[in-house]
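Lab notebook, bench 4. Still working through the backlog of constructs that have no structural model yet. Next entry is a single chain of 273 residues. Request: give me the structure tokens for it.
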Amino acid sequence: MPELPEVETVRTELEPALTGRTLSRVEIVDPRLVAPDDPRAVASDLEGERVAGVGRRCKYLVIDLDSGGALVCHLRMTGSFGLSADGRDPYTRATVDLDDGETVLYRDVRRFGTWRVLGPGDVEPYLGVRLGVEPLGRRFTTQWLSERLAGRRAPVKAAILGQRSVAGLGNIYADEALWRARIHPLRPAGGLDADEVRRLRRTIRAALRHGIARQGATLSDYRRPNGETGAMQHEFHVYGRLGEPCDRCGRPIAKTRAGGRGTWFCPYCQTAG
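Model written out:
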């Protein structure tokens, strides 16, 4: 699933292509993308709109419209945008023709992605009930994280995957952040001391920023809108590296499960407490 760094990479590449452009023709190929709304009504609402900007809220893309509303997109497992009509295939779920002659394609193999057209003032209420604060923003403080973990018996890996706790964080960057913080993923979340929470907040931000700098991780279906791949997969410290030497202590990386998710860690330098 694309996580915050991948979605931010998509945003930065879509922004110059969309901002200031008018959506001259929209076709929702797959009704499931906009369900329960009528795909023809969604297309009609979008056609003629001018794009004011392209933002991101954690894992959501927010395409702001001049009318004051927005198209809010979640890529889920396999959603992706392409900036060429040549990429149309059986997995194309929507097409958007722009007034400059360019075409934007939305492709989604597993069909879990969603589009929602929201009116003026509706974006924040829609996202606010689903998400916590932006982990790269000023409101993501040690106190915020400490309050979200306090009293939790769940493994810290599972706790930080909750989007109300660390919005935008997914399996990859959770493992990477915990390795950076030297915290075992199965530690009870509420058992971390103040210094560990402070360290974890810092390493979550560091792991996400590193992922953005590498244009995300291309592991399966994720591709950048320009068709190129990300590079973060070549720089993982633990994720997907079972049996390989830890970059810090040289001992083998192990794998377990936390919150139902495959979890990679170093059992020697990530303390179990």
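Notes after review: The chain has a mean pLDDT of 93. The helical segments are 4-18, 39-46, 123-128, 142-149, 156-161, 171-181, 194-213. Flag for follow-up if needed.
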